Amino acid sequence: MKAMKKNNAIKGLLAAAIIAAASMAGHAEECIYVYHQGSIVFKDYAEHVDSVALENNKTQISIYDTTHVQLYSAALSYVDSIKFADDRPVADLLDVVFNPDGSARDISPMGNTVEAVGNNTIVWDETYKRYTAHYNNPWATSPVPDYYKIDYDSNTAFKNGLSDGHTLETVFMTDYEGTITNAEAKWFSSHQSGGTGFLISTISGARKNEITFLPNVNTTTSSKWIWCTSGIVPQPKVFYHVVGVWDKAAGKAYVYVNGELKNTVAAVGNLRFPNAGSRWFGIGGDPNGANSAQAGAKWEVVTARVYNDALTQDQVTSLWRDVKKLQDAQAPASLVTDVDYMSGLPVKAGGTYSIYGNNFKAGDKIAFTSATGSGSSFIATVTPIEPAGVTVQIPAGAVTDSYLMTLSRGDSTQVLGGTRLEVVDSTPAGSKVIAHRGFWLGTSQNSRQSLLNAQNLGVYGSETDVWLTTDNHLMINHDAKLNNVTIQTSTYDQVKDLTLSNGEKVPQLSDFLAMLKSSSSPTKLIIEIKAHSTDARTVEAADSAVAAVKRAGVQDKVEYISFSLNACAKIAQLDPQAKVSYLNGNVDPDSLHTLGITGLDYKASVFTANPTWVTQAHNLGMTCNAWTINTRSQMAEVSKMGIDFLTTDYPVEATAIKRHFDGNH
């Protein structure tokens, strides 16, 4: 009697399963489960299942796929139950969604506060059908100017969720030219002498610049990093779905890339949390104390999630399937691609705002609609600019707000993303650009090619460094040594055949001066007199440089800088018409002016700490330069301060920021 009741129950359940199979087909997130004595004996995605059938006089149950291949078969008496269920796990600790106004929110049950630091740029991604966080920082940038912060230090439930085993999930993309700089970069992490997160690792032994899951787990209280490397070196502009799992019960860490398990390593013990002040997750950078982030780069972050549990392979597969479906879907062709812009810039009525990307067309229009619900909006026609991109004119009546930008071309539209415009009466002129050691991306620093690149770009200046050999030849190089040869203690014959990484022989200053003389480019050569073994020798190098410039007849194309105050004063004495700036940051404008020195060339932090120095210098007819300014946010801040020049490794980006400020001056 019991067997008959069981079979009747299974038949009833089977009828429901057959109906469910028909209705659920095509729902990728639904799975069919067959149970025996409470355990799963068969599982597959509902979209693979075409039918569930009773066979052999209703004593056998069989499941068939959409091509009528049998997936599973068993005696009916063996089967306890058949169920359909959603197999996707829920990110119950953190699930960040980005908003077009630059803010972000956590939609997980935990409901954490997501703090936007700086001016995060948000773009719309048509593939993933959501807004993404877009960062355009040099590799391993520290500090990171813009990032998101999720503080969990006082959230006991969150910390407990991490401590008993956890999973991190992200979809991200990075971008770089050539090869990856050998320095750590992090887009979603909570590290600082402990913690957990993702990074692109440095080369060390067998380790490459690869996607890595890095929890800190140990059986003692000391720090022990668990290097769960994936073997995947991220390629530029390629999105990756990455899942890192720390299973405390199993004592193992796992890393998955695009649904595939790439590595399993031992991870026995307890999670060590980051240092106090750094117990927060960063998106766009890694915590470095309570109010700073580090290890930034060019990222596009689509998702950033934390799960309380150590997910299984099946659960990771279900997450990847969701991502893969979006990637495989035929997204509408984009009107423009590689969209990039900077949020939070000051603009004025009648001024301009630049948006970069490929395939903009004359006649395109961009609608700016308030992302905060204030009702402010305007439509602007684009003007193409070089490099690829456009400017739009800010109309009278525009107000400070966060805006959603939508491109229209005829009947077609494309959401570009969100930006914040700070409407002001006017801005200072943009800081003029000096290429640090030349424009050397793709070639060698301080090479002839780097100077030529800077001249072709037309920036204000190309900075270089000179050393004096024992027989008084001025050689170009930043470091005291080149290929393990110390220049200032060597003769010209000992250094003249040393080779740069691009194959050039090490230049003399005379080579650069000849390039200046023969060029029609407005780019000046900014000569740094390096600090030699004695200050007297540094002054001799300054004397030799001034004499070489006079012999070449290019005084109007050369300026000087040095950390040696005596060298700067000597140059001013030798050539009272020369422009010479002091680098060390410890002398006020009045004192420098008394020595005949014409400029302050300091770190931006010095000007921030001494906010009156820029005005004092200008009142004395002096100039100000800030070094080395490598992020767009820093470039904008320097221009806002009214600093005349900035020295950077990224002169193309700096030129774009200068164009913006000049367009709103």
Automatic annotation (TrEMBL):
Give the signal peptide, or none. 1-28
Q: Which residues form the GP-PDE domain?
A: 431-658
Q: Does the keyword Ribosomal protein apply?
A: no
Q: Which InterPro entries match?
A: ConA-like_dom_sf, GP_PDE_dom, PLC-like_Pdiesterase_TIM-brl
Q: Which UniProt keywords apply?
A: Signal
Q: Name one GO biological process term.
A: lipid metabolic process
The molecule here is called GP-PDE domain-containing protein
Q: Give a Pfam family name.
A: Laminin_G_3
Q: Which GO terms describe its molecular function?
A: hydrolase activity, hydrolyzing O-glycosyl compounds; phosphoric diester hydrolase activity
Cite the PANTHER family for this sequence: GLYCEROPHOSPHODIESTER PHOSPHODIESTERASE, CYTOPLASMIC (PTHR46211:SF1), GLYCEROPHOSPHORYL DIESTER PHOSPHODIESTERASE (PTHR46211)
| Origin: domain of life | Bacteria
Ribonucleoprotein is among the record's keywords: no
